[in-house]
Amino acid sequence: MRLSRSVAPLLALSLAVSLAACGFQPRGALTLPEGFGPLAVTAADPYSPLADGLRTDLSRAGAATAAQAEGAAQLRILAERWDTRPLSVDAFVQVREVETRYAVDFELVDATGTKRLEKQTLELSREYVYEAAESFGNPGEQEIIQRELRRDMQAAVLRRVDIALRGND
């Protein structure tokens, strides 16, 4: 089915109007308030992939990042926890479904030591089918799921930081 040239622009316009009417707005990039200064990401684990990812995301968003925490605001990653548990077993008592959970405790403190975001815990989880006969694929799948959870956690933490800073302007 082909749309005539006069109908296609009208269809695009009506779609745009309906999205605007429902309150849809594209999420903007993270912006730190004027005068907030550089932001350091600190973690209990100095080799934390989450902290590294947050530093990269903040830098990409144009936020001034600090290598050292002294004299800078701090996004503190207080703890990271991984948990994997079976969800279901088959008639032979072999695991068939698994859930992986990822929880992170964090807080945001400005350069003066004022908590801009109190300690919070975010938890994400994924469920997947575990194939015992394909044991070589399951560790790889678990690794992919953990990488996805970490990426989603980075986005969730940055959304919380963005909301906290916009609310405190």
Beta-strand percent range: 25-35%
Helical fraction equals 25-40%
Structural class by secondary-structure content: alpha+beta
Gyration radius from CA atoms, angstroms = 22 Å
Quote the CATH topology.
Double Stranded RNA Binding Domain
| Shape assignment | flat
The CATH architecture classification is 2-Layer Sandwich
The number of helical runs is: 3
Report mean pLDDT, rounded to a whole number: 81
What ranges have pLDDT less than 50 throughout 5 or more consecutive residues?
A: none
User: Strands of the biggest beta sheet: in what spatial order?
Assistant: 1-2-3-4
CATH top-level class:
Alpha Beta
N- and C-termini, Cα separation? 51 Å
Written description of the protein model:
By secondary structure, the chain is an alpha+beta fold. 34% of the residues lie in helices and 31% in strands. Helix 2 (49-60) crosses helix 3. The mean pLDDT is 81.
